[in-house]
């Protein structure tokens, strides 16, 4: 028994996996590794404080001293992008966790429950996704008020149906799997089947789904920040930086081009890796 | 068939009713008296009284709920706290620029996705493979790009550098080009990705080989035979498309300083003008649900396979 694999062996586990991973995915992983390092040790990466202005050197185009140039009041854009990763990624991550937790509870309940429960949970997803995500987040912010935490919650609520639906179908799949039928046949209690077999296999899909979807959370968070509903200046958050950069767009491209590039590359990297993982582990993402 | 249509229509109605109820519950579930919740930080003489009258706050909760639904059914969306006008009039006056923007962007996105996906999907060798690779990289890049940043890049290139299009405003079709392109590209990226996947699945089907064996050209094969098979997953994205365009319009309008529903909404969010935000959210849900219901029903007519499944 012990040498029978319970789930298909992934190519990752085989020797020489690095040669099987496509180059774009490796590049994406390298980019995220560099980003993670700069988030953890920004001082190693840049000597400049993201908040200290140096008016004498304001609006300097990119050069050897200021790689990404300086903004309207002479702050180093490179250093703001590096420090900004902390805000943008952590807020994006927290709002994704909000969607994930609620989506997980609702999705698993729907997948395991009776037909009425399933219908009920599915209607919750229908209703939440009837509102366009950006507008739903705006609606929530109107009531909760502006600010970082409320914005993260607002974006998180808009993301619930996506996670809920995927986790519901994941649960349905696991519930119908042979090993669950066998466990039930051999008299394992319902609670034990749930804890030992169903939950672990549903949770196994979570990292993959999360990797794919954190990108849209990061974009949504930066959008609300750009609209001025989240962190306020002088916070070096990417969306806030873009809003500030927009005001000087006519004379300087660098204060807005670089933070935007940071968002796009980060989101691309996550979605490349996520799609690769989904393919390798056979996780359905829709 | 008839039963399917009726079920679909009823589900649509149910979702609409639930969406309105969800908004009602959300407002009542917040801590504090409803007058205070709705008024937020706003205060002027008579505001609380007018809220109480509009929401029927001196009546029982079920009565309030019934009245709320009845008002919505009559298209009465309340009176803006800040502008002191009926919300419907406020939104109505700003509707046209947003409809123009969303429609232009929607058409552009669909055309782009159709052309790009159909002409590049599923090639495994030669120049076609390269075209396919380049196209899917572009799709990934555009789906990962925040609309407002894309807007800025376009402004830098086409307004400040080449001075082809105006920077902001809504005067003439020239002012529509950049916002529409900005809104369309990320949407086109998603549509094209889904379409490419569907086309690739279809291109593997046996009937494709039969058609090829008949000597039909690649272009004719794709346009006349493969495309109609691959369109279903794309049509199911119709609702998402509407939602995305409406949501994206808020950001795009802010980005380009365009008047429209988005600008009104944003102003209402910042000034906590609840009736306006509530109305926009419910209207968007309405449009979204009606559109996706109609698309689903339309597809029953278009694709006979769905009628019996």
Task: Write a short abstract of this structure.
Chain A is mainly alpha-helical and 286 residues long.
Protein model, in words:
The complex is a heterodimer of chains A (286) and B (309). By secondary structure, chain A is mainly α. Chain A has helices at residues 17-20, 23-40, 42-45, 77-112, 115-130, 133-144, 148-175, 178-185, 190-203, 206-226, 238-247, 254-281. In chain A, α4 crosses α10 (206-226) and α10 (206-226) packs parallel to α11. In chain B, 37% of the residues are buried. Chain B is flat and about 80 Å long. The longest helix of chain B has 34 residues, at 87-120. By secondary structure, chain B is mainly α. Chain B has two domains: 2-87, no CATH class; 88-308, MetI-like (MetI-like fold), CATH 1.10.3720.10. At the A-B interface, α5, α6, α10, α11 and α12 of A face α1, α6, α7, α11 and α12 of B. Chain A: Residues 85-274 form the ABC transmembrane type-1 domain. Chain A: Belongs to the binding-protein-dependent transport system permease family. Chain A: It comes from Paraburkholderia dioscoreae. Chain A: The chain crosses the membrane at residues 20-41, 89-113, 133-160, 198-231, 251-278.
């Amino acid at each position: 028994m012990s040498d029978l694999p319970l789930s298909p062996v992934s190519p990752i586990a085989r020797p020489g996996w690095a040669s099987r991973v496509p180059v774009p995915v490796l590049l994406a992983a390298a980019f995220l590794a560099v980003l993670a390092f700069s988030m953890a040790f920004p001082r190693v990466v840049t000597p400049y404080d993201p908040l200290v202005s140096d008016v004498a050197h304001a609006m300097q185009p990119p050069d050897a001293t200021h790689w990404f140039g300086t903004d309207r009041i002479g702050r180093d854009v490179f250093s703001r992008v590096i420090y900004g990763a902390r805000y943008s990624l952590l807020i994006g991550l927290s709002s994704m966790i909000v969607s994930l937790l609620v989506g997980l509870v609702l999705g698993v309940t729907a997948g395991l429950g009776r037909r009425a429960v399933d219908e009920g949970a599915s209607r919750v997803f229908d209703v939440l996704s009837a509102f366009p995500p950006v507008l739903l987040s705006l609606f929530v912010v109107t009531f909760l008020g502006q600010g970082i935490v409320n914005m993260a919650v607002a974006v998180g609520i808009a993301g619930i149906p996506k996670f809920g639906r995927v986790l519901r179908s994941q649960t349905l799949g696991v519930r119908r799997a042979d090993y669950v039928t066998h466990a039930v046949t051999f008299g394992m209690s319902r609670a034990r089947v749930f804890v030992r077999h169903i939950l672990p296999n549903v949770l196994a899909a979570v990292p993959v789904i999360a990797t794919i979807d954190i990108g849209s959370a990061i974009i949504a968070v930066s959008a609300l920040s750009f609209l001025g509903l989240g962190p306020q200046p002088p916070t070096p958050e990417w969306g806030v930086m873009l809003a500030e950069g927009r005001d000087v767009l006519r004379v300087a491209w660098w204060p807005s081009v670089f933070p935007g590039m940071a968002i796009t590359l980060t989101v691309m990297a996550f979605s490349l890796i996520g799609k690769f993982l989904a393919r390798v582990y056979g996780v359905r993402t829709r | 068939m008839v039963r399917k249509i009726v079920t679909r229509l009823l589900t649509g109605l149910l979702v609409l009713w639930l969406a309105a109820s969800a908004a009602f519950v959300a407002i009542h579930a917040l801590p504090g008296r409803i007058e205070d919740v709705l008024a937020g930080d706003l205060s002027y003489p008579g505001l609380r009284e007018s809220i109480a009258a509009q929401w029927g706050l001196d009546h029982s909760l079920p009565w309030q709920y019934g009245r709320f639904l009845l008002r919505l059914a009559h298209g009465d969306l309340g009176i803006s706290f800040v502008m002191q006008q009926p919300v419907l009039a406020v939104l109505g006056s700003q509707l046209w620029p947003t409809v123009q923007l969303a429609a232009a962007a929607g058409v552009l996105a669909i055309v782009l996705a159709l052309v790009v996906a159909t002409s590049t999907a599923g090639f495994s060798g030669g120049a076609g493979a390269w075209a396919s690779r380049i196209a899917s990289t572009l799709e990934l890049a555009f789906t990962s790009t925040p609309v407002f940043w894309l807007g800025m890049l376009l402004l830098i290139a086409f307004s400040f550098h080449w001075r082809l299009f105006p920077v902001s405003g809504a005067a003439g079709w020239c002012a529509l080009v950049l916002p529409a392109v900005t809104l369309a590209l990320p949407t086109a990226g998603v549509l094209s990705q889904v379409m490419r996947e569907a086309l690739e699945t279809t291109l593997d089907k046996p009937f494709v080989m039969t058609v090829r064996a008949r000597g039909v050209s690649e272009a004719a094969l794709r346009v006349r035979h493969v495309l109609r098979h691959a369109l279903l997953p794309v049509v199911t994205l119709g609702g998402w498309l509407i939602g995305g365009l409406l949501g994206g319009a808020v950001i795009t309008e802010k980005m380009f300083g365009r008047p429209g529903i988005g600008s009104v909404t944003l102003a209402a969010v910042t000034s906590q003008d609840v009736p306006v935000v509530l109305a926009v959210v419910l209207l968007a849900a309405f449009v979204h649900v009606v559109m996706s219901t109609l698309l689903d029903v339309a597809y029953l007519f278009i694709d006979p396979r769905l009628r019996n499944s």
